[in-house]
């Protein structure tokens, strides 16, 4: 699952560039305007929605550390620590990949 987030994050800039290309087309602009009036979008624009998976990905280690604070079982704490390390390692690989762009 985390590989999917990693790929998504690495392609985020490409998605923004493609969005700019799409915004040059009248049909897409009309569709985007229609979406902005749809209450399900909560007044968020597509660009706002594209960043959400990246933000969620970056929050995960913090959330896991908070869960660990309130975990009493030592075995579970150890598993959470391992998971935090894996997630942080994956995020560092993302940082390395993003820097090479």
Task: Describe, in short, the structure shown.
With 101 residues, the protein is mainly alpha-helical. Helix content is 81%, strand content 0%. It has five helices and no strands.
Description:
The model has no long low-confidence stretch (mean pLDDT 86). Helix 1 (2-10) packs parallel to helix 5 (74-99). This protein has helices spanning 2-10, 12-22, 26-37, 46-69, 74-99. The radius of gyration is 18 Å and the shape is elongated. It contains five helices and no strands. The protein is mainly alpha-helical. 81% of the residues lie in helices and 0% in strands.
Key features?
101 residues; elongated; mainly alpha
Order of helices and strands: HHHHH
Biggest sheet record: none
Spatial gap, N to C terminus: 23 Å
Which percent bin holds the helix content?
Answer: over 70%
- Contiguous uncertain segments of 5+ residues: none
Shape: elongated
Tally of helical runs = 5
Percent of residues in β-strands: under 5%
**What's the gyration radius in Å?**
18 Å
Structural category is mainly alpha
**What is the arithmetic mean of pLDDT?**
86
Total number of β-strand segments? 0
